[in-house]
Amino acid sequence: MNLTLRIWRQKGANTPGEFVTYPVHNVSPDMSFLEMLDVLNEELIVRGEEPVSFEHDCREGICGSCGFLIDGMTHGPRRGTTVCQLHMRSFQDGDELTLEPWRASAFPVLKDLIVDRSAFDRIIQSGGFISAPTGSAPEANAILVPKESSDTAFDAAACIACGACVAACPNASAMLFTSAKLTHLNVLPQGQPERDERTVNMVAAMDREGFGSCTNHAECEAACPKLIPLEFIARMNRYVYRALLRPHRHPLAERIAPGAPSRAR
Amino acid sequence: MTQQFISDRAVGLKAPAPAGKSRGVWPGNPVVALWRTTIGKKAVMAVTGVILVGFVIAHMAGNLKIFLGEKAFNEYALFLRTVGEPLVPYSVLLWIARVVLLASALLHIWAAVELTRINWAARPRSYAVKRSLATTAAALTMRYSGVLLAVFIVYHLLHLTLGAVGFSSGAFSHESVYHNVVTGLSGWFVSIFYILAMGGLCLHLDHGIWSMLQTLDLNTNRISRRLRLLSRVVAFLVFLGFIAVPIAVLAGWLGPKE
Ligand code: HEM
Ligand code: FES
Q1: Is A216 in CB contact (< 8 Å) with chain B?
Q2: Contact call for A262 and B118, based on CB within 8 A
């Protein structure tokens, strides 16, 4: 296969970027998309040009490092597939593809197709810990977990924090991500002790990072390589209503700083 | 107040600001705190949306009474003012409804403006190529159909509630609502505007009803397609019910009985 790639090239966070067109020859349909980019980069290195920077690690769809838009679709055209697991057989010989990094003010571009996703880390960090016992394995039946809860927690825990939800959302909202992280712990008995506190802290952190809000387009759900469902955002809303509207002896509501969400960055 | 949470110490977050420092109005008030989150603003849009959708359905159904004739329609208009008597005086319930509706509409718009500003700031640079995979035209144009509705509501109140626009002097009757509708909608210009605005309402509700159900956590992925269908059906029925009146007036089915 021969392809033409229109790739976003940007030297650094503070330099303006532009699209540059590269032909790629002799692509095998069995290559993954990233392997195809490796081939291009080797050619660029031989020619003495700067290779295209893209993030990757596991290349098996579980670490969440990879991701950019291919022709306006996060992780490319295959549903439920990260770009590292996307194969060139999903494309046609002669295709012209546009590769563009995630665009959101909370995810500044670092270089070419790489963005800084540490905003996600700060949301996770604000959630704190759960008070589950560690050490020797606990008795398996000591805490009974309803089947529905464990299934839901598993579905939510599938999130790899790649950022495709933010990238695909017309509002650059991080609600699918945050809702998956909250659902994952909030549906389990082990997550109950810190539940309301975690909810308020993570939602406040999400707003502080300058992500948008949800207008229920469901683009995130269609974009998610791990098929996290939109209903988790509905759940997160209920977690927030409960966390803030229930009477608390601790000053939980004061965590929400005045004007925080409106602080446009 | 000095109470700190365990997880604060763990991740080094700041304790709540000490009393007296700028913490905005009513720090710690749960409703104010909710409003300060993007999720809370969205909840305000959903709750006021429930009130406004309820009103729109009732108003549409009430309008259809015009097909029962002049007497029935005018009696209905009088009923809206006398309902609840003698427990509450004349038109008090109507005024309560007006205040609640106005407050809902203003809150709805306020939240929409704030959230839109946040959302625009969240993606300052748009994509060179972007494909929509799930969203609908109705969802993408909520801000515009909303603005159209706001313009329509202002015009409509000046028109058929106050008689301040669209009527030559003396033509607006404080006795016969039937007369006002038939006279007020007999011009092509006004009728077409009413019908276009109802098209905007239809689009707004098509996404709005389903969106409100999702925001209030009444959606699950198992029933989401049915809820979207329900939203579309209600939006379309409301559209048909409302446009029936201007169409009937234009077609001469509701001729002036004077
Ligand atoms: C073709 C469509 C419509 C027709 C023929 C119509 C007709 C009327 C009439 C005759 C009144 C006066 C009722 C009275 O004084 O007793 C009225 C009031 C009103 N209408 Fe409509 N209407 C339509 C659509 C709408 C829509 C879509 C909305 C809102 C989005 C709306 C909002 C209102 C409001 C807020 C009032 C004022 C109620 C009050 O305070 O008395 N109308 N309408
Ligand atoms: S490289 Fe790990 S998910 Fe793609």
Answers
A1: yes
A2: yes
The rounded distance, in Å, linking the Cα atoms of A75 and B190 is 49
User: Is the Cβ–Cβ distance between A129 and A38 less than 8 Å?
Assistant: no
Q: Using the beta-carbon criterion (under 8 Å), do A212 and B122 form an inter-chain contact?
A: yes
* Percentage of chain A exceeding pLDDT 90: 87
B199-214 confidence digits (pLDDT tens): 999 999 999 999 999 9
Same fold, A3-111 and A118-256: no
**ipTM of the complex model:** 0.92
Select from B26, B29, B119 the residue whose CB has the most chain A CBs within 10 Å, as the one to mutate to test that interface.
B119
**Residue written as token pair 């924090």:** A161
A118-256 CATH: 1.10.1060.10
Say yes or no to pLDDT of A228 above 80: yes
Residues A176, A197: Cα–Cα separation, whole Å? 19
Q: Please give the Cα distance from B151 to B144 (Å, whole number).
A: 11
* Contacts across the A-B interface (CB distance below 8 Å): 208
Rounded CA separation A187/B34 (Å): 22
* Residues forming beta bridges with residue B86, ordered by sequence position: none
Q: Pick one of 1.10.760.10, 3.40.50.970, 3.10.20.30, 3.40.50.2020 as the CATH number of A3-111.
A: 3.10.20.30
> Domain extents for chain A?
3-111, 118-256
Residue B129 pLDDT more than 90?
Answer: yes
pLDDT tier at A248 (50, 70, 90 boundaries)? confident
Query: Which residues form the domain of B171?
Result: 31-118+133-251
Q: Whose CA is nearest to atom 3 of ligand 2?
A: A61
CA-nearest residue to A79 within chain B is B133
pLDDT at position B17 over 80? no
Task: Say if ligand 2 is within 6 A of residue A61 CB.
Answer: yes
Question: What spacing in Å lies between the alpha carbon of B156 and ligand 1's midpoint?
Answer: 7
In a domain, B21, yes or no: no
